[in-house]
Amino acid sequence: MTDTITGPGAVDTALAQFTEMMATDGYLLTWDEPEPHRVTVRIAAGPDACADCLVPTPVMEAIMMAALADTGYTLDHVELPRVH
Questions:
Q1: 41-73 pLDDT per residue, tens
Q2: Pick from 39, 52, 47, 42: nearest CA to 81
Q3: Strand 74-79 vs strand 38-45: parallel, antiparallel, or unpaired?
Q4: How many angstroms separate the CA atoms of 65 and 55, rounded?
Q5: Which of 5, 37, 47, 62 has its CA 20 to 30 A from that of 75?
Q6: Beta partners for 79?
Q7: The predicted structure's pLDDT at residue 82
Q8: CA-CA distance, 8 to 48, in Å (whole number)?
Q9: Where are the domains of the chain?
Q10: C-alpha to C-alpha distance for 44 and 28, rounded to whole angstroms
Q11: What span, in angstroms and rounded, lies between the C-alpha atoms of 7 and 2?
Q12: Contact (Cβ atoms closer than 8 angstroms) between residue 29 and residue 18
């Protein structure tokens, strides 16, 4: 059984590895809480972002849902940058 860790700090902790991984590829991962305990994840491309490094939205949503599983938060949606 996994313990649930709640609160905004739990979301930061749950997404930390992805924030670092995205930064390595030139992206900024941020999140907000549009509704109580619902998270929107936003990924923005920096000037040197690796265009081939992003997975499709459904895959990213599954990854983020799994990351948030033990936080008491659920994923609302993921916003990815448009492909140019």
A1: 999 999 999 989 999 999 999 999 999 999 999
A2: 42
A3: parallel
A4: 15
A5: 47
A6: 42
A7: 81
A8: 29
A9: 8-79
A10: 5
A11: 16
A12: yes
- The pLDDT tens digits for 1-22 are 445 556 778 999 999 999 999 9
For 7, which DSSP code?
Answer: S
Q: Which fold has domain 8-79?
A: GMP Synthetase; Chain A, domain 3 (3.30.300)
pTM (predicted TM-score): 0.86
* CA 59 – CA 55 distance, rounded (Å): 6
- Chain-centroid distance, C-alpha 37: 14
Q: Contact at 8 Å (CB) between 19 and 42?
A: no
Amino acid at position 9, single letter: G
**Single-letter code of the amino acid located at 53:** C
